[in-house]
Write a structure and sequence with these properties.
This is Transcriptional regulator. The chain is an alpha+beta fold. 36% of the residues lie in helices and 15% in strands. The protein has a three-stranded antiparallel β-sheet. The longest helix has 14 residues. The chain starts with a strand and ends in a 6-residue tail after the last helix.
Amino acid sequence: MQRADGGSLSVTICGGLVAARVIDPISGDQPAHVRTFEHPLLRALSITALPPGSAPTVRSCRDWTENKPHIAGRLGSTLLTAMLAQHWLRRRPNDRALTITARGYENLSSTVSFEKD
């Protein structure tokens, strides 16, 4: 397992979901919407709906390492929770960094074209 570049992964996921028209394009502080849950990544993570809540469905958050938007809001939270639960990602002790597991690389490369460095 290698240390994940969380910024690169989150930006890749965002770009892939926007390109596939799963979510509206995101930028600035404007909330966006999920258009469909029909996408290989969402299917692989068994995401068919979002939990209710007061947070925006999809919100843009600029990744400071990539200087591009990634997904925040309920969709971002749901994606992270599912990837951790299915052992695609593992939290590193004592910091916010993530490790992408071998299982994660396999699934991410087939669903959003994320490759190892």
